[in-house]
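S1.2 Input.
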Amino acid sequence: MKPTLVLVGRPNVGKSTLFNRLTRSRDALVADMPGLTRDRHYGIGRLGDRPYFVVDTGGLEPAAKDGILAEMARQADQAIAEADALLFLVDGRAGLTPQDKQIAVELRRTGRPVHLVVNKGEGMNRAVVAADFHELGFGDPIVISASHGDGVRGLIDAALAPFPVDPEGEDDGSGGPKVAIIGRPNVGKSTLINALLGEERVIAFDMPGTTRDAISIPFERNGKNYTLIDTAGLRRKGKVFEAIEKFSVIKTLQAIEQSNVAVLVLDASQDISEQDAHIAGFALESGRAMVVAVNKWDAVDSYRREQLKNDLARKLNFLSWAKFHYISALEGDGIGALMRSVDGAYAAAMIKLATPKLTRTLQAAITKQAPPRHGIFRPKMRYAHQGGSNPPVVVVHGNALEHIPDSYKRFLERNFMEVFKLQGTPLRIQFKTARNPFSDTE
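S1.3 Output.
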């Protein structure tokens, strides 16, 4: 499982700036104004080939008893509770403050590993900047500049060092596929789990947010082993008010990361929302095989069914490789066909691709449509081999491949998926450019 690093500290010490650098994004708003971050932001960072979760929190105000500051502190407390390690940020230019001391006392009580991070240290003597903060009692402070990137690599190296490396995407298949049931709250995820198991194994209740955590359930169906993962529903940030419900978001993201196949459950009685597309997009970004289950199909009329199919084709067109099933979890209709698609998606995700056939498919695609020129040169692709599974990864070798546009990369992906009949799983292509032996000569 990926380690979870949580950024904590008083307002305006640079937590969001560091979050954006670690996740290589601009997801967290950054401005020279304290208290800008009020909610939690979740993202995935990567150190080399090693991924980890990173959580940005609002500024801690230990003295706040009510109002928005108290809510921000409560959200930060929940993030701290699910952390594997805490990155306690302080401001190297402002020096040690009484508020930093109060926060240090609170963090020490949590029992979580704490790394003291002195931010805004660019252009300053590191030993001098760190001197004031030794009295907090968290060992040697790590001086960084989140805005410039100075010292950030060493910080993450130190934070991840105690955690074992968990190879991403490896699965020996001995326990069968891990199937995460994902979707918005109250679309019938727990009802679907109970229909598969034939018992009331998880709570199913007509109230959004009944499931708070991700629950793993081993079971056997038709002689095959599976592990079902029932996850708490993800909802739009503006619609989440309870801190405990936010606490379950990281569990849902981890469940998707741990699974082999994600079953996205949609409610036929509701419109396809941006949040449905967002959940599907995260599973796709994680490389998970996917099956879409449109639940409560028995509760809508023929006009609504036709309208919904059009909406699915338009709003979830990026899932054209996934199979869609129209089911009733409550009545048990369509469950058998759904599980057959889960089996097919898992088989596609774990497939072994022969190098000769991959190379022939690559050359056939080039003959059909050559990559566009870059200047006077055209990228040259020579051969391909498999670089991983869950999802399948095809590594293409050649020259000047860094100039191949994304549109041509998608063209290759479609060709490989059609030839190898990879329905139910995304496919990734990596380009490896041969090194020019004369590049260092004059």
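S1.4 Remarks. Confidence is low (pLDDT under 50) at residues 28-39, 168-173, 200-213, 233-248.
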